[in-house]
Specification:
The structure is a homodimer. Chain A folds into 4 domains: about 90 residues, Ubiquitin-like (UB roll), CATH 3.10.20.30; about 80 residues, Ubiquitin-like (UB roll) (Roll), CATH 3.10.20.880; about 140 residues, 2-Layer Sandwich (Nucleotidyltransferase, domain 5); about 170 residues, Nucleotidyltransferase, domain 5, CATH 3.30.420.40. In chain A, about 30% of the residues lie in helices and about 25% in strands. The first copy, chain A, contains 17 helices and 30 strands. In chain A, β20 and β21 form a beta hairpin. In chain A, α9 crosses α14, α10 crosses α13 and α11 packs across α16. The radius of gyration of chain A is 29 Å and the shape is elongated. At the A-B interface, α4 and α5 of A face α4 and α5 of B.
Chain lengths: ~650, ~650
Amino acid sequence: MSEHSILFLPHNKKITVPDGETLIRAAMEAGVHVNASCGGEGLCGKCRVIIEDGAVEGGVSEKLSKADQEKGYRLACRSIVRGNLTVRIPVESEVDASVLNLKSTPRCTARIVEPNLDELKEQGLFIPPVEKKYLELPEPNVHDNLPDVTRLVSFLKLNHDEHRLVVRLPVIREIPDVLRQGNFKVTATLARPVHSGRKSHIIHVEPGDTTDRNYAIAVDIGTTTVYAQLIDLKTGKVLAQHGDFNAQISYGEDVISRIVYAEKPGGLEKLQEVVVGTINKVIGKNIRKAGIGRNEVSSIALAGNTTMTQLLLKINPRYIRRAPYIPASTLYPPIGAKSLGIDLGDHVTALIYPAISSYVGGDIVAGIMGSGMYRTNEITLFMDIGTNAEIVIGNKDWLACAACSAGPAFEGGGIQFGMRAAKGAIEDFSIDPATLEPMNITIGNVRPKGLCGSGLIIMVATLFETGVIDSQGKFNRELKTPRIRQTEGIWEYVLAWKEETQIDRDLVLTEIDIENLIRAKGAIYSGAQTLLEEVGMGIQDIERIILAGGFGSYVDLEKAMVIGLLPEVAPDKVTFIGNSSLLGAKMSALTNRIRQDVVEVTRKMTNFELSETPSYMDHYIAALFLPHTNITQFPKLKERLEARKKLRK
Amino acid sequence: MSEHSILFLPHNKKITVPDGETLIRAAMEAGVHVNASCGGEGLCGKCRVIIEDGAVEGGVSEKLSKADQEKGYRLACRSIVRGNLTVRIPVESEVDASVLNLKSTPRCTARIVEPNLDELKEQGLFIPPVEKKYLELPEPNVHDNLPDVTRLVSFLKLNHDEHRLVVRLPVIREIPDVLRQGNFKVTATLARPVHSGRKSHIIHVEPGDTTDRNYAIAVDIGTTTVYAQLIDLKTGKVLAQHGDFNAQISYGEDVISRIVYAEKPGGLEKLQEVVVGTINKVIGKNIRKAGIGRNEVSSIALAGNTTMTQLLLKINPRYIRRAPYIPASTLYPPIGAKSLGIDLGDHVTALIYPAISSYVGGDIVAGIMGSGMYRTNEITLFMDIGTNAEIVIGNKDWLACAACSAGPAFEGGGIQFGMRAAKGAIEDFSIDPATLEPMNITIGNVRPKGLCGSGLIIMVATLFETGVIDSQGKFNRELKTPRIRQTEGIWEYVLAWKEETQIDRDLVLTEIDIENLIRAKGAIYSGAQTLLEEVGMGIQDIERIILAGGFGSYVDLEKAMVIGLLPEVAPDKVTFIGNSSLLGAKMSALTNRIRQDVVEVTRKMTNFELSETPSYMDHYIAALFLPHTNITQFPKLKERLEARKKLRK
């Protein structure tokens, strides 16, 4: 894909964007404010810019007069970048010239990091859990009448240097006929021991040479969705991926209502059955997408939160939701996939990620394993942000974790116009510090109908940095603009006027919304602080941040640091690993090294119940400010705020 | 039980017998001949003896005149020994006086040997495969909210020094509720690893303290019968034993017809189902006899021949009966008893004895393990004699085995009046060297209706030693007695006249019968010789003999050496271990040491297919003589024969 460079004047900011980007998003990316209320639908006509050099596709509109069009005016939200440009932001929406000297915080989301097989191989971490070996056996005769299994085992030793082999009964049952079907030319599938020196299991024998076809499935069992990947075990490549809603949703939206259902007679069995149904559905899709045979899948690894895991394994989760919140187990032994109802060959063993506690589950452990944070020296903060946020801090020497009840703010819950990240949600925002006019960018470039979690963070951070709200999240009552007002006693900022929205109402951000966000981010930040303090460290010791989960890929890192959700580290030290549960499951499917290490990780991990950790409440109260009571924890922000203060004076 | 001593005159032989023995059996035991045709029913009146001192119970008969009775005459077969006696054998049935100087061969069956637990413990061979541990756990609270399984495992480590524990999924499912049912006071059942250093499995958790109730089942799956024992794992004691016919009999009498049936559609499943039915029946009887709970059984070990084993495990045995006779496997992994249909707890693992080849099966391996022959220095010959006789030779350094097709002679098959060892079968025999009159003793002391395998060996040996038949098994045509005659061209000896039998015909032993026995014993002896020769040894290197199977307990050792079935060793070097399959299964249930060793034993064992071993046919031809072409292999017999020859001259 080609790229184009754009110079924004008078800011004199240069940025490179991919072909096809809208000009308004390019401006946002460059940290250049352009008034825009309608989210990018071309309705408000406020995002007028002048193309001084080069040409854009589109951008003309009835909102622009013929004369203006001839002068080079275009609507930024409707202009598609197709070449290098010089773009001037007109005076009417340009910020106070002095603001140009401010250090802007560039849009910056976390680097996406996926481990690759070659790297693992180089590091000696690649121990294939399942391998196929082809054998041409001599046919038996009266002078050589070894038992069939003994023959197979002997020649695996002789030809492939395979020692210490165990054969399971279902395979023994097949071997006599398979050997003869294949004229004693067969492929044996070996499942490797987790610990070297232990025995390998012959789990499958097929006629002929099938060594080039060996696949695994990785599954993330989420409360809402189930995702699966099909992995080629020879190359480590993901051949297909598919997700679907967890059919358990019909029996309750969240884990608590699922547990309640599981306690009813037959409820556990029902929930197990339907989640396996979903798993089978996504496996089926993957198999069809990749065009492989179902029986060519040799292994499956699954990860999910503690409740999802217990439901899958038909372990009643009743004690998870009752104080003192006890899960059944940490580690689960490998188990025949078929015995769980998973529609794969008899020979396929299901690996289940271990849980740490009732609210730090296998999905998080999978993230630890998949991200490799347990192998590094750097003190790393791992976060999966959602209603229930999980935090893990540590490195190769120690690990501590906790679950924080952050509330639903990050998913748009408890926010007056909050919504999930869907079409029409404001996902990016800027404000003109002089006029206090907004620049809204919505998902899908349509008129706004709400704001999503990542947008909320950007708004609150921006309003705070521009001094529109103070460190307690209260609007500066002295600012003169119709956008800041009081409705039924609640102060609010009008993001978009009624006619610019899809909802036929003014779209606002209230102080209550801001307060909710502050509580949510405070719960998480203070959780991390508490863990660190318990191990004798402080927030400044964090060297690296790993974000997991859907939310993590969208969050603007600098803004998240401005509101005090994330501690202040260099953005290149923040990585995003996407669906950590799926990643960890994939890694387990690819290398036994993960399975070796995971036992050690669960042993090493110290779980904190924050509600039972006395210092947590103090940290939480201190975190109910923007960014924090103690601003020295955010030195770069402090510097910027002081610079602004100076400018204003 | 009290014992009495009897002095036989004029032989001057003293013997001690238990109270209640018949006098005729006492005489037989002492090697004193008393004429007796009717098997001990008091019908022929020939077994007249004079009680010179002491008194017997019974023994009077219409066959004895009042005068004779007053002189002390009694019928030996009807006289019950109730005190010390001096008994004179009257002149009319006394042998030529010179014979008295002959060395007689006392009746002598093999010593019955059963290993005991204390001995195993002393030898450090006792490693209990399943143990119970009682635990009083602290109840969880908000400050101590370990997962339930982690709590259990931690306190097993803390209180019982149990490390490296694995918990299976079905147990994980139970633990949360069981812990709470037992108020966190529970008993955990641990299955020990076969090899130390491996992991123990927590296979069961029960509320309360059940450590004193821990049992195992041992099963012998015979083609005809299934026997099971219930063993107390704390004491090693057998609490109950029960046997029943293998219900597979309805689908074929022998292994070949079972295999044929198994090849039919649904046949394998049917045979598996019915043998498990029989196993469940005998387990049920054992449990009721011992008065224990079914769920208190923690393990089960099973042994059977190769076909029985494959049928139990639902492995099609089709290649067992087809050249080159290939069984599916040697070793079988432990498997959940329930998955085979065995009606025991979910937690019970079934241990299956490994097979060596299609015709040397798990029953024989069980014998090797149960007898401990694989641990000794002595070169030992292990024999299970039947239609298919299995031979194992070796010691702790090497082991060789073979199956011999002996034919059914030892079970009475192919013998004109042969029968199984049941009421009316002649089981013991002697002959008056002068008159050639027989002394028949039948099972049940009733009129004879046939002869059983052990009786046949005694007859042929006795007839040979007394010169009635020659080393080729042919009758001495010159002997003058109506008992030796030719019928339809076949020479025969009349054991009992028509009116003395239950069968209304003369009961005879023919030269064809003798030939069949010689073939049978020749097959076995030459099998042993072949194995020895293949390892560079000879028959004289055998230091010890172990007999297994029903036949072994009845066979007269000296007579078996006279006919050349057994090599000549001191009788105290011959031991009988009964049902070797059951013994081995019991030993496996008692100590993991057996399970450790059995893998080594199967690896060490060299299996010979005698039909494919060129030297076998030569050895076989040489063995078709009494005792053998090469009599120097039987030095004691040679000496006795030479002494007799001298006497006759």
